[in-house]
Amino acid sequence: MKILVVNAGSSSLKYQLIDMDGEKELAKGLVERIGIEGSRLKHSAGEKKTEIEQEIPDHEAAAQLMLKILQDPEYGVIKSTDEIGAVGHRVLHGGSAFTASVIVNDAAKQAIRDCFPLGPLHNPANLMGIEACEKVMKGTPQVAVFDTAFHQTMPPKAYMYGVPKMYEEKLHVRRYGFHGTSHRFVSRRVCEFLGVSPEGKRIIICHLGNGSSLSAVKDGKCQDTSMGLTPLEGLLMGTRCGSCDPAVVQFIANNPLKEDGTPLGHPVSVDDVLTMMNKKSGLLGISGKSSDCRDIDSLADAGDPDATLAREMLIYGIKKYIGSYAAAMGGVDIIVFTAGIGENNAYLRERVIDGLEFMGAKIDPEKNKTRKEAVISACDSKVTVCVIPTNEEIMIARDTLDLVTTGKVRDN
Ligand code: ADP
User: Fold this and answer.
1) Which of 72, 130, 198, 222 has its CA 20 to 30 A from that of 186?
2) Is the separation of the CB atoms in 9 and 122 below 8 Å?
3) Which of 181, 239, 311, 341 best tests ligand 1's pocket when mutated (most atoms within 8 Å of CB)?
4) Which of 189, 155, 212 is nearest to 329 (CA)?
5) What mean pLDDT comes out for the span 145-174?
6) Would the CB of 342 count as within 6 Å of ligand 1?
7) Does the C-beta of 209 come closer than 6 Å to ligand 1?
């Protein structure tokens, strides 16, 4: 069966068509600037690549264009949309309602709507993507796969915040965690790769990309994760500040600065401060130059003090989470690095593991040069350290296939 994986944003729609017979990627693409001047589609099928610029007023038009190019005589890979057995959608926030992926029906759509306040930027866009595909592919099953679902096994002591309990009971204020599809894929794949059972294993997954999160996985189930009610909590990220004293929000709201560092002269709103914490902080905010870890590395290697500080903060933050999750699980057997930084940045991996010999983790600098699936720990390391490239699209496609063929997700 061929499964279409869709990730809809407020002005974009990413897609990938996967042949589940062998899990082969047939084509992928991105519709950008939906509803904005300059909208375009970028599409590739193997070596063949094309770009189309045209007016794309809404998500339905984007979905139509996606189907058109997938059936194109030159760049397409299918003859008819009937070949698409089902569509799997990435949905950011499933709140506490979703512990696993589901077939989309009216109740599921309402539950996604109920989560709008928890994911105000993403969930409405994700639902738009679902509804657009429903319209242009009538009768094709649609599946929703949630970024939060894998973390729903966290115990209350890990997901509760220390604010009055009624905020969780009435307003659902708690830790949810994100990147769940990646954490789930990687936690399964690493065990398969090492030929071990997830049962009895204590795994720490470091998903390090533009957005970064760690998770502690014991017996295949998530015990804790670093992102919270929103993806702002946890590690220092590309443009997000990660965890800090909540009083910082009030202090900055009352004493905001202009871009040039001089006082703005009047207070700003909490929303304004959170925008700054989400979009102008992290590696970008500390270095003052870039949110991209490759740029930070080049600058730091050339002696830039602010980029060096940003990199040191990131490394220190990852180490602290690894230490705390190892303590929380009573030890650690496997540490995994994944996503853009985790898969490609050997320097950062080496620095993170450096000094963790006390808890049995030791890196092999030669093995660590990899960018592929590999064990990178030394032969005498008690903890196995690995690089496992993430593949959220495959996980979404597998869930979609399972739900439409057996009604149930395997290995949730
Ligand atoms: P997203 O969270 O947007 O999916 P990615 O997982 O693509 O992000 O990660 C982006 C980060 O990964 C950037 O900071 C980038 O510097 C880093 N990165 C991506 N590819 C490479 C590479 N080949 N070498 C080093 N760093 C990389």
Assistant:
1) 130
2) yes
3) 341
4) 155
5) 97
6) no
7) yes
Q: What is the pLDDT of residues 248-269, one digit of tens each?
A: 999 999 999 999 999 999 999 9
The mean of the pLDDT values for the chain is 96
Cα gap 117→29, rounded to integer Å: 29
**Alpha helix locations (H) across 138-216?**
156-159, 166-171, 180-194
Query: How far apart (Å, rounded) are the C-alpha atoms in residues 73 and 251?
Result: 59
Question: What value does the CA radius of gyration of the chain take, rounded to a whole number of Å?
Answer: 22
Q: Ligand 1: distance of its center to the CA of 215 in Å?
A: 19
Tell me how crowded residue 404 is: count the other CB atoms within 10 A of its CB.
19
Strand 102-103 relative to strand 84-91, pairing:
unpaired
- Would you state the structure tokens that stand for residue 355, as one six-digit string? 């000094």
Q: Which atom of ligand 1 is nearest to the CA of 210?
A: 2
Q: What is the largest CA-CA distance in the chain?
A: 62
Which numbered atom of ligand 1 lies nearest the CA of 371? 23
- Can you tell me which residue has the tokens 């944003």? 9
| 252 phi, psi to nearest 5 deg | -70, -35
- DSSP assignment, residue 330? T
156 vs 160: CA distance, rounded Å: 6
Spell out a b/e string for 197-225, using b for 16 or more CB atoms within 10 Å of the CB, else e.
Answer: ebeebbbbbbbbbbbbbbbbbbebbbbbb
Which helix (H) or strand (E) segment holds residue 285: the answer is helix 282-287
- At residue 377, the pLDDT reads 98
Q: Is the shortest distance between the CB of 341 and ligand 1 below 6 Å? A: yes
Give the whole-angstrom CA distance, residue 4 versus residue 393. 9
210 Cα to the center of ligand 1, angstroms: 6
Cα-to-centroid distance, 252 and ligand 1 (Å)? 30
- Identify the sign of the CA torsion 255, 260, 264, 270: negative
Chain Cα centroid distance, residue 62: 23
**From residue 286, how far is each of 144, 208, 268 by CA, in Å?**
37, 18, 21
CB 342 within 8 A of CB 387: yes
19 is catalytic: no
- Give the total residue count for the chain: 412
Q: Which residue in 322, 321, 328 sits closest to 359, CA to CA? A: 322
In this predicted structure, what is the pLDDT of residue 253?
Answer: 98
Burial string for 64-78 (b: 16+ CB within 10 Å, else e) reads bbbbbbbebeebbbb
